[in-house]
Amino acid sequence: MEVFKKGSNVFKILSEAISEGIVIVNKSQTIVATNMAANALFGYSEEELKGQHLDILIPKKYHNNHHKHVSGFLKKSDKRQMGHGRDLYGRRKDGSQFPVEAGLNPFTVYDQDYVMALVIDISVRKKAEQELKHWASIFNESLNEIFIFDARTLLFLDVNKGAKKNIGYTIEELHKMTPVDIKPEFNKEQFLKKISPLLEGREEKLKFNSIHQRKDGSTYPVEIHLQKSVHENSETLVAIILDITEQEEYTQKLENTVAKRTRQLEEALTKEKELGELKTKFLSLVSHEFKTPLSGILTSATLAGKYEKEEQQDKREKHLKTIQGKVKYLNNIINDFLSIERLESGKVNYKYSNFPLSKVINEVIYDANMLLKEAQNIEYPENIDAVFLDFDEKILELVLTNLINNAIKYSSEDSTIYLTANEKNNRLTITVSDEGIGIPEAEQKYVFNRYFRAENALLNQGTGIGLNIVKTHLENLGGSITFTSVENKGTTFTVEIPMKTT
């Protein structure tokens, strides 16, 4: 061990000139020497490590495997990378663990065998690898189809699982194909013309609708979002494909529903002018309610794509949350329209179950908290933990979500939404009160009418069908909903439902 003492200028000069941590052990795995880089890496002084067993630098749960690994290495005595194919971890003096990479080098001095380990902290690399795996997983598991193809040859380079599943081709088959092979509407010349603004740098992103053809010959409508990516002088195109089959079917169904409602209005209304105004208002409302969140989604998606650096992930996450919120809002609108269709066709099947009231209220308030404005809060109802009822849990959740979300939407910052719940004579009464803009007295009689929006609420998002759906469901289940309101002071909605099925 003398050769490694501080007085050995050769070892000191050589070891301190190396940026990697150096740890030298003998055959019994006792530490005989370290350099400054190793001491700093593990948080020890030079003298603290000498004479200690190598286990002091290894997390306890890895001791057994490490002993076997080092013993096997000493027998073979060849230079190698330690733990190839396995994750290695070091332990600092303070007990913290960190991933390392270690190169082992055997040598002999004065007939004594030693092993020198060159140790590197790879925490940053590991984090980058984990993030890369995370994004690769997102790419592969995305429910949307993702195609990546060469900007020059147009040959597919990679596709995700969703694309392979829907299009029906294997990755080997796709490597020999181009987008033209799955787009019956385009030949190569037409397709190149279509994407030329992207290839020539005149546009950063293209969005267009097309038809895709599966391997079995069937086709389906798609919405294509296309962007160019440049890496080391290699240009690729990334296409995110949305299968809009259901969207087009829904659009057709919505159009049919609108047409049906229009015919009913034409039969019911005697004045053509009133009918025209109602129809125009409704169509304008629907267009606005879809266009606004879709524009927000497109903007956030474009901006999120620009934040590619690690330090910009918080900005990317902000835009992804915006997208999630607006998609959820669109989904709620679609669910509202589908609810109307089911209610009018008599296809609603209610499911009764026994559940605690607190479960539903907790879930609704948890979701509503994400919508609260600055300094807004929700006052939780008292004494409800022992309240159980036999009712349709999903319908009650829909009712309370609608009322609480409306209370948040139509109230200002620094306001409170109050909830109460009381049971009497096998009936449960729930109230939701706000300190919001209220409903003008002259318009209160229209509140539960479908598509109605009060004049003082037109600047807020909404379709005007939520309360109509709520009222219909409650009446179908033997319940009721009423309200009182004073303009500029607030509104209180009162829901009464049976606690047990009869």
Biggest sheet architecture: 6 strands, antiparallel
Uncertain spans: none
Sheet/helix structural class: alpha+beta
DSSP strand count: 18
Helix content: 40-55%
The CATH superfamily title of the largest domain:
Histidine kinase-like ATPase, C-terminal domain
What amount of the residues lies in strands? 25-35%
What does the radius of gyration come to?
34 Å
From the spread of the alpha carbons, the general shape counts as extended
Q: On the 0-100 scale, what is the average pLDDT?
A: 81
Could you say what the CATH architecture of the largest domain is?
A: 2-Layer Sandwich
State the CATH topology of the largest domain. Answer: Heat Shock Protein 90
Number of domains: 4
**Count of separate DSSP helical elements:** 14
* Termini Cα gap: 90 Å
CATH class of the largest domain: Alpha Beta
